[in-house]
What we know:
By secondary structure, chain A is mainly α. Chain A has helices at residues 3-21, 25-46, 52-79, 92-112, 123-140, 144-162, 171-199. In chain A, helix 2 runs antiparallel to helix 3 (52-79). Chain B is mainly alpha-helical. Chain B has one domain. Chain B has 19 helices and no strands. Chain B has helices at residues 2-19, 30-49, 64-87, 96-115, 119-137, 143-173, 184-189, 196-214, 222-229, 232-259, 263-285, 291-312, 315-345, 356-359, 361-374, 381-395, 399-424, 439-457, 461-473. Chain B is globular and about 75 Å long. Chain B starts with a helix and ends in a 6-residue tail after the last helix.
Amino acid sequence: MHGAPQLILLLVVLSDLAVLGTTRLSSCIRIVAGQGLLLGLLPLLLAPHLSVHAVSLAVGTVVVKAIVLPWFLMWAIREAAVRREVEPLVGFIASQLLGALAVALAFAISSRLPLREVQHELLVPVSLATLMIGFIVLTTRRKALTQVVGYLILENGIYLFGLTHAERVPFLIEVGVLLDIFVGVFIMGIVVFHINREFDSLDSTRLRELAD
Amino acid sequence: MRLLALCGIPLVTALAVLGLPVFRGRRVPVALLGAAAVAHLALVTSLWAIPAPPTLGGWLAADPLGLTVLTVTSVLFLVTVTYVVGYLRHDRPRSGQVFAGCLLAFLAAASVVALAHHLAILWVGMEATTLSVAPLVFLRRDRRSLEATWKYLVISSVGIALALLGTFFLASAQVDIAGRPLVLPDLLAHARELHPAWLRAAFLFLLVGFGTKMGLAPMHTWKPDTYGEAPSLVSGLMAGALTGCAFLGVARVTEVVMAAGLEQFAQPVLIGFGLLSLAVAAAFIIGQGDVKRLLAYSSVEHMGLLVLGLGLGGVGAYGSMLHLVNNGLAKGWVFLVTGNVVLATGSATAAGNRGLIRTLPVSAALLVLGLFAVTGSPPFGLFMSEFTLLRAAIDAGHPWIAAIMLLALAVIFVGMAALVLGIALGAPPPGAVPVRESPWLVAGPMVLAAAVLMLGVYIPGPLHEVLTRAAVALGGRGP
């Protein structure tokens, strides 16, 4: 079982980079759903033995991150008749280069951190890389909906870091965190829906009325 | 039991309002809001008389820091609910269900934050406060409020995500030492054994994360838009109560860092954020044309003063705690009377208003008094707390910090006075007639004003004791 978590973590990094290079919004959401599925598998593979805790965390993660939220974002695209392209502020090649840089930086930082969890040595660098790439998506894409995707990737990165403590943090708290993220994305989705109706586009750069 | 009830009563009421079909439609269940607010304040008052033991295995407890934040929140919430009675006669939210449900959900989430002694629970509550307020910012459902809601949601969510990472870092600092992960008393008891590198990282991420929610510069950009576009009573709750909760998040990690003996590392960072916030507020207050945006920058200033006090240590910690109370009550007061101006004239900008003292005498008088209170003039409570902070700067051997503070406060006073006096005094536009002001709309602000005035002259014994104990927990001392 030792190789399986490594493989999944590598797939997570690949999915991060894939989001940066994808031109279609719906494909971005599919990739993030796939990432949610990968994240759901990790607690099962990392736990020393299959506990109720690990199984419920896995199920909760898959339901929220791989099924409900992607479905809801797809619904928002359809209902709000969003144009299908991602429309980046920074080109696709440039953002993939930035992403690669983020991965390199993540590994460089992690190698200097005082880490004790040697058996999952990829967990922390992959978590930091995902976090930074989520931030890149959040800041370099024009559409409000793509920014929600970026926020989800950012949260996935933090979730990965949280897995280093999965056995030590009580289940109740994990439920609370998942619920908060769920409601957060839900409210963002509603606002996105209204932005599209009011502005006829999900372009957040048009939100420019308020300034000093 | 009482601690659970403090979170449970508003939570159950919120879920009932949001879930039951009886509450659909535009009608706002004011009686229910009032009942929940009174019950909450009664429970909080009972905590002052008879302390409650920690519950849920120590996850919830009312220590001096939390009790202070909880009390400010509870008082402000009850005052806001009385204001809602008068507000509804002028303006009806599109959905009474969302309005009342979100207000109650905010009270529940803020109570969780105030009582949480498990830092992950604190995070869950903090995120819930962000989410419960977002639909309230969007209450008017027009383009401007939509833009404000979006900025608020995105910036706060990223901030709070960084705080979650900081919370995990704190758990990493705790690996291999005794104590339950992220439980505050255990963290404090073994603070010296915490891994210093992880602890430093945790402190920075939590400060930036919760600092975003406080509205410290340079993470304050959402604040003027949000406070400017949200209904004034919501802005008042955010500026008075929600910022207090966010400050509590910063204060909790400061407690741990101070107990670990890392004050050499933490204090300059806190002082830096504090001074930057003061400078940014002073720069943007000059020439501001909208009272609500002006108050938002004033809130940036006061958040800066709060972390500055933590950074100065010593008597500064006491100053911060006192300032938390003063600022919470004063911001509620000023935002509510600004709301009266908006209800009567449609806006609170310099362009549309002049001579309000003639047309809206009570609210305008309260607004002018509020100007003096918020800028820290004697005899109001904020003068006392700002004076304590100045003393702390000099005690700590940083007279230059005191000088920067005084300069910023002076600039802010001039900027605020120019706008507020400009709309309050002078001759009203021709044809303007005096408006009858409902007692519901002015009674709440008057009560808050009386409280802020009292705190400037006399601090009740129990409050002084609680603030002193909170200051000691933060590595400082009482005056």
